[in-house]
Amino acid sequence: MPKFPEPISNLINEFNKLPGIGPKTSERFVFYLLKQPKEEISRLSQVLENLKDKITYCSACQNISEKNPCYICSDQRRDKKVICVVAESHDMASIENTGEYKGLYHVLGGDLNPLEGITPDRLKIKELLARVKNDGVKEIILALNPDLEGESTILYLTKILKPLNIKTTRLARGLPMGSDLEYADEVTLSNALKGRLEI
Ligand SMILES: [Zn+2]
After folding, report:
1. What is the distance in A from the centroid of ligand 1 to the CA of 125?
2. Taking the alpha carbons of 88, 90, 92, 94 in that order, is the dihedral positive or negative?
3. Which SS3 state, helix, strand or coil, does residue 157 take?
4. Cα(163) to centroid(ligand 1), Å
5. CA 34 – ligand 1 centroid, Å
6. Ligand 1 centroid vs 187 CA: distance in angstroms?
7. For residue 82, what are the β-bridge partners?
8. pLDDT surpassing 70 at residue 197
9. What is the rounded distance in angstroms from the CA atom of residue 173 to the CA atom of residue 199?
10. Spacing, Cα 18 to ligand 1 middle (Å)
C-alpha cells in the first residue's frame, strides 16, 4: 500500500525535484499546504503560472527579466563598455548587491561541463562574441565560480576572446576555491571585483 494518497505523493515528488530539498522537507511542505485555505493554494498556483508567463530573457545580456531589454541594459547611467560575464542570473544578483559595479552583464546560462553535456554551443557564448564585436566593448570581466567548471569556462573564453584584442580580467583570488558566487559575502565579492586581474 502506498505511503500517502496519490495527490500527496505526487506533490512530494515535485518538491523533491527542487535543488537542496529532500523527501522529508518535501513532505513537510505538502502537509503545510494541506492545512492552508483553498484561496492560499490558488494564489500559490497563480504565482507559479506567472513565473513562466511573465518572465522573459533580455536579448542583450540573456538575463531573466520582466521586459526586454532588461532594466540594467536599458539604464543609460551604466557603462556599456564593460561586460561582466557570469554563469547564472543569481550570480549577477550577487554582484549587483555589492553596489560596486556599474557596467553591463552577460549571463552564460551555466559553466562548461562536457561530462554533463554542457558544451560551448549550449551556453550564450555566440551572443557574447556578437556583443563584443558590435558594441565597442573595452573590457570583459570573467566573474565565474571559483571551481573546476568555472576555471575551464574562463580558459575557454580567454582563448576565444584573445584574437579580439580586448582587455579580459577575472575576479581576484580570495574567493575560496570550490565555492559559489551566489553564496559569497558582499565584502569578499566586492574586493574580488576591485582587485580583478588581467589575463
Ligand atoms: Zn539585459
Report:
1. 15
2. negative
3. helix
4. 25
5. 39
6. 25
7. 139
8. yes
9. 13
10. 27
φ/ψ of 48, rounded to 5, equals -65, -45
Q: Ligand 1 centroid vs 159 CA: distance in angstroms?
A: 25
Axis crossing angle, helix 89-98 with helix 186-194, rounded to the nearest 10: 90
Facing residues of 85 across strands?
106, 142
- Ligand 1 center to 27 CA (angstroms): 38
pTM of the model: 0.75
Q: What average pLDDT score do residues 78-91 get?
A: 95
Element (H, E) at 47: helix 38-53
DSSP H or E run through 79: strand 79-86
**Measured at the alpha carbon of residue 124, what is the angle toward residues 122 and 128, in degrees to the nearest 5?**
150
Question: From CA 127, how far away is CA 57, in angstroms rounded?
Answer: 13
Q: Is the dihedral of CA 188, 191, 193, 196 positive or negative?
A: negative
Residue with cell 576555471: 151
pLDDT at 105 over 90: yes
Residue listed under C-alpha cell 512530494: 12
Distance 36 CA to ligand 1 centre (A): 38
* The three grid cell numbers given for residue 119, joined into one nine-digit string: 558544451
Say how many Å lie between the first and final Cα of the chain, rounded.
Answer: 61
pLDDT at 124 over 80: yes
What separation in Å is there between the alpha carbon of 72 and the centre of ligand 1? Answer: 6
**CB-side exposure of 127: number of CA atoms within 13 Å?**
18
Distance separating alpha carbons of residues 81 and 25, to the nearest angstrom: 45
